[in-house]
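In practice, a research group might receive sequence data for several interacting partners and want a quick structural hypothesis before committing to experiments. The following worked case mirrors that situation: the sequences arrive first, and a predicted assembly follows.
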Amino acid sequence: MLHQTLPLPACLMLLLVACAPAAPAPAPAAPGGPSKPAAETPKRGGTLVLGATTDPGQLNPGITTAGGTHLVADNLYNGLLQFDERLEPQPDLAESWQVAPDGRTYTFNLRSNVLWHDGTPFTSADVKFTFEEVLLKFHARTKAGLEHVLAGIDTPDPQTVVFRFKEPYAPLLRRLDVVEAPMLPKHVYEGTDVQQNPANLAPIGTGPYQFAEYVKGDRVRMVRNERYFKAGLPYLDEVVFRVIPQESSLELALEQGEVDYAWSLPGPDIARLQQSPDIRLVQAPSGPGGAYCEDTLIFNLAHAPLDKLEVRRAFAHAVNRQQLLDQVRFGQGRVASGPIASTMAWAYNPEVPKYEYSVQKANQLLDQAGLARGAGGTRYGLTFVFPPAYQRTAEVVRQNMAEVGVDVQLKGLEVNAANEQIFVKKDFDLGIGSYCGGPDPEVGVTRAYVSTNIGPILYSNGAGYRNPRVDELFAEAATTVDQGQRTKLYAEVQDILVKDLPYLWLLENETYRAYRAEVHGLRYWAGDLVETAYRDR
Amino acid sequence: MARYVLRRLLQAVPLLLGMIVLTFLLIHLAPGDPIYALAGESGDAAYYAEMRARFGLDRPLPEQLGIYFLNVLRGDLGQSYVQKQPVLPLVLSRVPATLLLTLSALLAATALGTWLGVVAATRAGSLVDHAITATTIGVYGIPVFWLGQVLVIVVAAGLGWFPIQGMTTARTAATGWALVGDVARHLALPATALGLQSLALIARVTRAGMREALGDDLVRTARAKGLAERAVVYRHALPNALLPVVTVVGGHVSTLLTGAVLVEIIFAWPGLGRLLYDATTTRDYPLLMAIFEVVAIGVILANLLTDLLYAVLDPRVRYE
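A structural hypothesis for the assembly, expressed as tokens:
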């Protein structure tokens, strides 16, 4: 008989236990909380592991706006400028610049000590080539923003580059960071098919780290650029981006120390992580995927009764945006008040009308609009098209609107299908999307409100809103160089838009980023995330 | 036997062609537009029109299918919209990781499942039999994705016995035997998550097959001849009970590949399943087609291998 059979499962378990590492010792008790100031002197050395939820696919950030690619690839390159924590432009490859009084000419003085990772000197010819042969052809945001306004780029000498515009152009200084305009090597890409060049998988940049290895679907490894043009930088020996598609696995890997940084977290776990002594959390309104993003409810103004202002204002009073912030976003961000996020302080108008949560006011407005309740208490029904990321938001909206007699039928679609239905087919009553304003309103705000941008394009004027005065204001703001004057123009346009409500701006998104307590110097608001990062143990 | 293999391979060709047509139509007819993966989300109408023309997306569907077919016959499966590289090398580069995961899961499930089935069958009616039966029935009903999450939370994060994610440790680049050990540690949990359901099924089928085989005349004869019980069970009864197990295992390969997609996402295992997930979300048509074709070929070969294994296990089976 086989009753004397060795207890194989037990043996296997013993083997597994013997092979497994010891469980980590519990962390010493220490208060958690917000990010602490960096240590006195950055420590050199070590490897930083960052978690990314998508595979970059390829490592040329000049031919894509995909956040997943930029998160990784931007650390291998530089822009002419970079942003400080307040998103103010600072020198990067350009050490200084002059703007002509008429705002049509920008002259940049480039650093002279910059080398590409293969040792070739960086010059103004690289800047001209990058814009003319790469960005204006393949970087969708830069192409859309500059193609029709840029007159030409001149390179009078290897350390000087001049941008000439057809009209005064104000936003240029906020379009020259590594996210919007990474500089690529002319000597590598000239004469080749930029999109097929092998350097897209083994990049040559000027960045603080240089490419070492890309294992598709798994990791990208970078090593210190010993000839980086900023003295003393970078601090780390190596940086590894590990692809972990599941947010919950990424979070656990961060807690266990398998990774040092996570750029997104499951909302329900944020409160718990905030108490952890080993983890630091920061919120940032910007990053490699975009800046100043707002969850925005899109009214299809061509569909009655959403063409009535009272109905749209009723939505503004009936939708409980604080509930969305607390229960759907777990506090990540703030309630939005208009088309420009409050964190873009210079352009934001705090005096716009506010629509406070009030079921009573919403009911009054709907009565005024002539939408009486029927026998079952319902005034009318409409369809809400949304991608999966907004499932819970849609449910809250449905619940809120039911209280005022509006029956919102939910139509959740896969993200590509939802975007197509909203922006291309325009087959929706309510839609939703995250409109990212960008570092300047001209980059990402204008496109949603000008009548010239009503068409089958994602994140265009999906509501179909037309207001000649708004068109005028945006056009004037784009060609006004004086920031004070631009502030006034944007203030007026925000006032008009908030009164007209072609959209309902729900929440300003500020996603939490998390990193291990021993890590410092992360530039989490920018594309060049790890330029000044270091570990203190 | 060689003629049989050749005939089976030739029969697979129309099957593969039909699969290509069906999947091409399905993915192109599904809502969603790959133009945004190709051209970004900030382009204007003229730019998108230019990109559509460049990639042939503005042509009628039958024409696109025809062009694709001709290219496939020339060995060109196209370029990935997102990664801008030929898709076939891309897909083949991810096959080893998935093969390692699925074969490890399958081998472990087969070995353990067969052993458990034998133990249950030889102790039929006992507490051990009931425990194995109850456990395997329960385990069979556990969804792979749930089990994977539980293993991550309890075993990896909670107990710290195994890594949470990846195929190797990101912080250090191991080589040689250290790399083998590193991969093995990372493989343990995803293979367990993927293989447990198969293990339960194999145990059940083995038990049933063994019960039948142990009641057969040949077993009575073997015992009458005075053979040791271990020899009776493993040398005489088990080979006869294995044929249905082979059928189940062969048919289970496609289920394992489906489960691999979920397991690879949960454990960040860099295999074909992850690539499929990424390609689906970005509507990367050429990459999707290449993945389906490679997987289909794999399933066809697995079925062929299953049939050939019959001939090895049962001398009465002959293929002409």
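Before designing any experiment, note the following. Chain A is about 25% helix and 20% strand. The radius of gyration of chain A is 26 Å.
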